[in-house]
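Something for you to look into today, if you have time. Could you write out one complete protein record for me, on any chain you like? Leave the record below and I will have a look.
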Amino acid sequence: MEVKTSLLDNMIGVGDMVLLEPLSEDSFLENLKKRFDHSEIYTYIGSVVISMNPYRSLPIYTPDKVEEYRNRNFYELSPHIYALADEAYRSLRDQDKDQCILITGESGAGKTEASKLVMSYVAAVCGKGQEVNKVKEQLLQSNPVLEAFGNAKTVRNDNSSRFGKYMDIEFDFKGDPLGGVISNYLLEKSRVVKQPRGERNFHVFYQLLSGASDDTLKKLRLHRDVSKYNYLSLDSAVVSGLDDAANFRTVRNAMQIVGFMEDEVQSVLQLVAAVLKLGNIEFKPESRCNGTDESRIKDKNDLKEMCELLGIEQSVLERAFSYRTVEAKLEKVSTTLNVAQAYYARDALAKNLYSRLFTWLVTRINESIKAQTKTRHKVMGVLDIYGFEIFEDNSFEQFIINYCNEKLQQIFIELTLREEQEEYVREGIEWTNIEYFNNAVICDLIENNKNGILAMLDEECLRPGTVTDETFLDKLNTVCAEHQHFESRLSKNSKFLTDHSLPHNCFRIQHYAGKVLYRVEGFMDKNNDLLYRDLSQAMYKANHSLIKQLFPEGNPAKVNLKRPPTAGFQFRASVSTLMKNLQTKNPNYIRCIKPNDKKAPHIFTESLIRHQVRYLGLMENVRVRRAGYAFRQTYEPCLERYKMLCKRTWPHWRGRAREGVEVLMADLQVPAEEFSYGRSKIFIRNPRTLFFLEERRRQCLQDLATLIQKIYRGWKCRSHFLLLKKSQIVVAAWYRRYAQQKKYQRIKSATTVVQSYARGWQARKLLRELKYQKRCEEAATTIAAYWHGTQVRREYRKFFRAHAGKKIYDFTIQRIMQKYFLGLRNNLPSMSPIDKNWPARTYLFLDGAHAELRRIFHLWRCKKYRSQFTEERKAVYEEKLEASEIFKDKKALYPSSVSQPFKGDYLEISKNPKYQKLNNAVDEKVLLADVVNKINRANGKGTARIFLPTKKSVVLADQKTGQVKASVPLPDLTSVSVSTQSDGFFALKLKEGSASAVKGDFLLSSEHLIEIITKLHRIGATATDREQLSIDISDEFLVQFKQDKVCVKFVQGAPKNGNSVSCKRKNNRLLEVSVPATA
């Protein structure tokens, strides 16, 4: 059987006040307190939800809770705001009924949070998808923006909404959100210029100063210090629990999500900064020659910065603060403003600027979140508006707020009664007229077009002549004196003449929630809400695009001399539009209650709550709901809940649900006047009857629980016994099997031991016999061997004696050779080819073999050494070998070059950027790059040249510039001449008649002579198209210089001037090179 829950299950107190018995104000408060103490903050009055602000976080808004209340009957679970939101959403989605959710209560009661919870629940249960999620996110993110600009910290609430908000959320036929439209009512703009003690201005001012970057504040001409601005209160600048900096970042992000462009955000911040700057503008009096006083601005710095922000000429705005122009049909009159009037103009401009900015924000948000499609939409409205206000000092704001609440109470009563009547008619129940207080007479007192208070206030504002708050009160005393809900000190009712609780400048209205005393001071100014035309025109002249939109009446081309509508007229029109809108929708109500003034959890202030219960009309609501039938329920859940009370309906009823309920009520003998049968519901008149059914059900459930426990315990014991019995059989079977296995193992083990002993004895006996037989055979064989040996020795004794000497010699020689080779193996020299060590021979007769082995070992290790060479190293050694063949024992310089490796490219010509151009000029691969000295015939001195031999030519280039001086093809080179001394001189001799020989041979000097000559010789040896280069080694040779031949002679002598080798010209035909003598 499916288990279903109900509002009546596990109930703390009474979940629905309609069922409260007995009903009184004290029992009502006691029930609220009992539920509040157990963290049950929601209670029903029929379909109305009472919400108590817990002032703490409760774990009742989780995603699991959303799923729990999703698609559930309103009374199926304990009271919750989610139940009302789900009921409204399902009615809109499934029944195509437009819905509205009216949230009322005083400041601090949790109205704003309740509206957020409703919207978040609807967003969670409706459809998913990229576009739908975007719409939901925009709808939800509109709240932080409006809260920043429309909420403020008050003594009653740290996040009090200072405006009324009504949002129409539009859905498609599937129930997915398409967009929304927001309407705002009566922003408390007087808070911009003045705040009561202990309260703050609107949040956005503090958020901007705390959360904006230093660069942003610099652009806005603002300072982070709150104390620098007159419009910001200092005693409550910091609120515990509110992080203004983090909230500013949240607002910026929300504006981006909603769809504000970055330039629009900057424009909004500039206007907020301008309001702060306005508050710092101060005035001083100045007397004119005609005796009148006029005002002048004390410090124009703030005015200058404000004008720079808004793009206004400073002189234009300064004049607007000093003069006022009054326009008639054909003339203009300009009058000066005194200091008080200048301050009034400044504050009026600040209030209008901020109020119009807020209205623009709402309009801009509506542009972003409005539905894009043109088809018909389903609509759910959420109204979050100020509750009934009764303060010690009540003014114009409280008057129109309470007027709005009177209208909401009127529509609430009308819609509630209409809903009751429609349900009775729909169910076929006889309708009984319900008596209730109709507050239409109070609404008429306020809004009547002829003699209503608002109409008289507008009439007084428009009347020429001297008009004051006192003249307005006198008019009220004249017109409304006979009204039963109006009281004043001078009314005709004489009993108030001695009523000292009613001052002369006040009047009192008997509202549905109680009497409220209003002070008329400020009524006229607040209703007029005048902004001087000079200021409007100054604002319109600004170069700021948003300012022009906010002050269209300042356009000189569209001057309208007609007086603008008053604040009361505008609010009455807005309320009228709201009422018409609400009457087209199915209403759902949330009544918010503040438990204490300390904003602390777990505190229940009975007097404060009693006051709220009265002015919210909750007792009246309960009486209206109980006037007919206190409880109603459809037949199916009613039968499902109470069928165990009758044997005929328990456990299953096979017929129709209504017939089952009729049988059930007859069996319980419930009096017929206590209930009625509708078409789909049963109606119970008195809560006592419902509690009687609940008590019987509770007793029956206890009996059923006892029966279920008895049957369950018996079944559990029997099951346990059968399980034990089955387990015992299984355990016994396994134990017997185990015992038999152990017995078999013991027998098997004993048998194996006996068998092993028997087999061992047999094996040992056979072994003894075999050993004895083997010993006998071995003995016989030994005897036979000795006998045969004796016979052989006797027969061959002469033969052995004749050849014994040769065998001994061969054996001795073999042993000597073996010892020699083993010793040679253990004393081999290293693997280095230049190691000349070799073990000494031990026997003279091994001299030849010893030398041959040494030669073979040397050749072998040379081969091993050569096998380790790379190709590059092999080429180097080949060049070294060729150098040895050319110069060994022929030139004294050769021994010193043996240990020096042939590097080749000493200048790193390919890597050095200095020689990059030279490297590119040489086409072939450069085999060697070195600096040589070219010897001059005239004086024997050398000039540095870069020597670059390739496979095809020899190139000489200037060392400094890298310019090629000479390039000799190798076929033109016939021979090279060098001396036998340790000098580095060599002569390159060219073929006679060749193009290269025009200037003669080259006499050069180099430190790497051996390497240069060797490489030139190798190039000639590898070439097939020319003769091999000849090397002439002599201490005296001829060198052809142009047309003359010069003899170069090398002599040994002492070095001069520290030079090791010197070259000196002796005559035209002789160059003498002096080379130091070698030791």
